[in-house]
Design goal:
alpha+beta, HSP40/DNAj peptide-binding domain, 4-stranded mixed β-sheet, elongated, disordered C terminus, metal-binding, zinc ion binding, zinc-finger, CR-type domain-containing protein, Hsp70 protein binding
Length: about 350
């Protein structure tokens, strides 16, 4: 009827009234049918924003797998209260105001102040829920576990977003292991005698198993060059992290061995070692004449950084010698700058 058309015109403007009595959204539907949806309208329901939560996981749970429970608080729609169409905007979420300026008529569209653009009136409430997070064997730090539709509910017409759990390996893990990919690294001190004659240790694995680890008989532990550093590395095959999705396929475990050298040796011990160990291949033969004529020096311990700092101080203090009027030399003396009067 004319009264209904006028009412729709007052609310939605010219788009709300046409010959077939279509609503304001129908014109867009016809446009999409003709031009193949070129205006980019979504065919499915709108989806709300996702929320993320970082969960710290110890390395043992990445190795063994675990189920963690997490309490979450989120906003949900209170279905005990009725959900009604907004009368102010007739469920459109916007209102159109017609402003006459002389002979011109201008339509101004704005968000409905009553429903805040939702098109419906409803109530929300806070809900506390418990979710179970299944950490599978071999998962890694940074891996994401999504919970579909567990974010806040913002509107009855909007699909709630997802709650995304981001796994993060716990820092300062007390297991003693370091993970790199599917390999595990553990640092162990050994004595020089063990490095030369054989090494045995007991390792408690991440699943509680006790491993007796021995070096091969007659095997001497020597450094392996890795990039710019040299490490004493030995490997226990198949005792690394399980592969995610195929937990029976595991990486390797590497022992980083720190050889603890003795502070000193007695002369008798040195003589015994010389008899047991192979002689040096390029040791020079020092004669009595060399002892008398050559300079003698001893090796000492020094940090290269301290040496560099001391050299820098020498550079700043002056490297040249200044001579006085009588020809005497003053080593390390500073030059005096004279100003003209």
């Amino acid at each position: 009827s004319d009264d209904q058309k006028r009412a729709r015109y007052d609310k939605f403007g010219e788009e709300g009234v046409d010959q077939d009595g279509m609503g304001p959204g129908n014109a867009e539907d016809i446009f999409d049918m003709v031009f193949g949806g070129g205006r980019g309208r979504s065919s499915g329901p709108r989806k709300g924003e996702d929320i993320t939560h970082v969960l710290e996981v110890p390395l043992s749970q990445f190795y063994n797998g675990a189920t963690r429970k997490l309490a979450i608080n989120r906003v949900v729609i209170d279905h005990s209260s009725p959900i009604t169409t907004c009368n102010a905007c007739d469920g459109q979420g916007v209102t159109v105001k017609t402003v006459r300026m002389g002979p011109m008529v201008q339509q101004m569209q704005s968000t409905c102040p009553q429903c805040h653009g939702q098109g419906k009136t409803f109530k929300t409430k806070k809900s506390k829920e418990i979710i179970e997070i299944h950490i599978e064997k071999g998962m890694k730090s940074g891996q994401k576990i999504p919970f579909r539709g567990m974010a806040d509910e913002s509107s009855p017409d909007v699909e709630p977003g997802d709650l995304i759990i981001i796994l993060k390996q716990k820092e300062n893990d007390d297991s003693g292991f370091t993970r790199k990919g599917n390999d595990l690294f553990v640092r162990k001190p050994i004595t020089l005698v063990e490095a030369l004659t054989g090494y045995t240790t007991v390792i408690t694995h991440l699943d509680g198993r006790k491993l007796i680890v021995r070096s091969k008989p007659g095997d001497i532990i020597k450094p392996i060059d890795l990039t710019s550093e040299k490490h004493y590395l030995k490997c226990v095959k198949g005792e690394g992290m399980p592969t995610h999705g195929n937990p029976f396929l595991c990486g390797n475990m590497f022992l980083i061995l720190d050889i603890v050298f003795p502070e000193s040796l007695t002369p008798d011990a040195c003589e015994i070692l010389k008899e047991i160990l192979p002689p040096p291949s390029e040791a020079p033969i020092i004669t009595d004449e060399m002892e008398e004529t050559y300079e003698h020096h001893e090796l000492v311990d020094m940090d290269p950084r301290e040496s560099a700092a001391a050299t820098a101080e020498y550079d700043h203090s002056g490297e040249a010698y200044d001579e006085d009027d009588e020809g005497g030399a003053m080593p390390g003396g500073r030059r005096v700058q004279c100003a003209q009067q």
